């Protein structure tokens, strides 16, 4: 093939960052907006849904070719200069293995639709040439990171964008820098920082929003928002485990194993087609969880990006001291107290301990139409439906709640230090009534309660084990 899998795997640091929403400027762009970027001249168009919004979908921030498979060089997006004239209006999904479609008794009609869209059951074509950002103007500058280290997020109706995951972002291959998917997050954020002024955006006011696995990184930005996940929400692979997983794949591909010269194994896998590697990855042993059996290609401890002890880093204040809005949904589908609720408690307590502006929320909406299954209630990702005001919201009250949530997120994006206080939310303090409940009893407003109302079952941070529910990641 022209572009090998391993070239992308090693050098490109596949994208778990899905879309950039910009900008904070009040002035409108010209009728046919053209923006000069480090990726070339980009031509946008008016949004079909909002006459006051321009969209620039499918902007490649890095090329998937022409990099050595042997050196593991970190690609900086700003290095790429291209003659690209226009965004890619429609790109294929990134290569990944789609999890099986599950059946549950009494699953709602909307539940099947939502599950299939979250897990990539859309029938789209796949290709490794898919590294792209989507940009909209005008709004406060937010960068959204999707959930899951293991399945694709592109072309979901909740947001648009491309990334590679699983073995393509977290291979565990020996002799190269690990966690390429996470490294690419930073490259993508740097692209936004370096180019967003051309879209009338303010590079000094970037807020990054992550959901589930997408919320476990802290790039250098002005504000952080996490939902249903923090760096304490998953158990990373150690180097030995990660390499054994890679050699499992190389063995399936008849490229050798740990007793074979590593360079020869890498070259052999490098020369295989993307589809062959993807098929081999699908045969790797799954990680047993109490949720969905999960492919095992996750971030690996390297003590550069992924620490062996994130709790110790939090206790020692070794984290980005950036204003933080963190939360989770109320029931989290019944699986995720230890993976989502408790890690959110621990993370926000670290921020508060070191006097970093912090807010914490819990989404409580109980409407039926976005529900997956009757008893489950809210679930990881259901908050996206409210923030993006999707078509599933059919009732007037639902729209009011959605607008309230959107205004709160916009207030934080405009001013991460003071915006939410001006919106009426107190800074989070574990000693006060400052946990924000959103849509409690389906009210289109917020109330404020003690965190112990929901955190009481959480063990001390050193005793918490998120692994049983890691299937969400």
UniProtKB/TrEMBL annotation:
Question: InterPro entries attached here?
Answer: AB_hydrolase_fold, CarbesteraseB, Type-B_Carboxylest/Lipase
Note the Pfam families from the entry.
Answer: COesterase
Instruction: Pinpoint the Carboxylesterase type B domain residues.
Output: 162-341
Signal peptide residue numbers: 1-20
Which top-rank group of organisms is this from? Answer: Eukaryota
Q: Which SUPFAM superfamilies has this protein been placed in?
A: alpha/beta-Hydrolases
Q: Which UniProt keywords are given for this protein, alphabetically ordered?
A: Signal
Name the UniProt record assigns to this protein: Alpha/beta-hydrolase
Please give the organism: Polychaeton citri CBS 116435
Native organism taxonomy: Eukaryota, Fungi, Dikarya, Ascomycota, Pezizomycotina
């Amino acid at each position: 093939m022209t572009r090998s899998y391993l070239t992308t795997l090693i050098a490109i640091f596949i994208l778990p960052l899905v879309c950039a929403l910009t900008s904070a400027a009040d002035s409108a762009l010209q009728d046919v907006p053209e923006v000069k970027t480090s990726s070339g001249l980009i031509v946008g168009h008016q949004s079909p849904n909002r006459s006051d919004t321009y969209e620039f979908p499918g902007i490649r921030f890095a090329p998937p070719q022409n990099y050595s498979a042997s050196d593991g060089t970190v690609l900086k997006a700003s290095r790429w200069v291209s003659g690209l004239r226009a965004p890619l209006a429609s790109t294929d999904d990134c290569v990944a293995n789609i999890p099986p479609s599950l059946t549950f008794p009494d699953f709602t009609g909307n539940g099947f639709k939502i599950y299939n869209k979250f897990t990539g059951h859309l029938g789209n074509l796949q290709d490794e040439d898919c590294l792209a950002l989507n940009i909209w103007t005008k709004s406060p500058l937010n960068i959204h990171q999707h959930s899951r280290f293991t399945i694709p997020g592109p072309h979901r109706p909740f947001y648009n964008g491309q990334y590679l995951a699983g073995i393509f972002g977290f291979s565990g291959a020996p002799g190269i820098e690990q966690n390429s998917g996470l490294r690419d997050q930073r490259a993508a954020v740097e692209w936004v920082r370096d180019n967003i002024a051309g879209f009338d955006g303010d590079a000094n006011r970037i807020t990054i929003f992550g959901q589930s696995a997408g919320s476990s990184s802290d790039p250098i930005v002005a504000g952080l928002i996490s939902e249903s996940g923090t760096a304490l929400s998953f158990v990373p692979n150690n180097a030995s485990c990660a390499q054994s997983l890679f050699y499992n794949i190389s063995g399936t591909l008849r490229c050798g194993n740990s007793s074979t010269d590593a360079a020869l194994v890498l070259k052999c896998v490098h020369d295989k087609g993307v589809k062959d590697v993807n098929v081999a990855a699908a045969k790797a042993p799954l990680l047993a969880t109490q949720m969905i059996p999960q492919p095992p290609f996750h971030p690996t401890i390297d003590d550069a990006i992924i620490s062996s002890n994130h709790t110790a880093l939090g206790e020692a204040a070794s984290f980005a001291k950036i204003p933080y809005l963190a939360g989770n949904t109320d029931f989290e589908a019944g699986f995720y107290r230890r993976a989502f609720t408790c890690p959110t408690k621990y993370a926000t307590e670290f921020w508060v301990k070191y006097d970093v502006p912090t807010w914490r929320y819990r989404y409580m909406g109980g409407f039926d139409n976005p529900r997956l299954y009757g008893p489950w209630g809210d679930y990881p990702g259901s908050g996206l439906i409210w923030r993006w005001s999707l078509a599933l919201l059919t009732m007037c009250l639902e729209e009011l709640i959605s607008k309230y949530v959107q205004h709160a997120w916009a207030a934080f994006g405009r001013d991460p230090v003071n915006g939410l206080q001006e919106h009426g939310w107190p800074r989070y303090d574990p000693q006060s009534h400052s946990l924000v409940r959103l849509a409690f009893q389906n009210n289109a407003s917020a109330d404020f309660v003690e965190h112990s109302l929901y955190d009481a079952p959480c063990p001390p941070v050193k005793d918490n084990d998120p692994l049983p529910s890691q299937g969400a990641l």
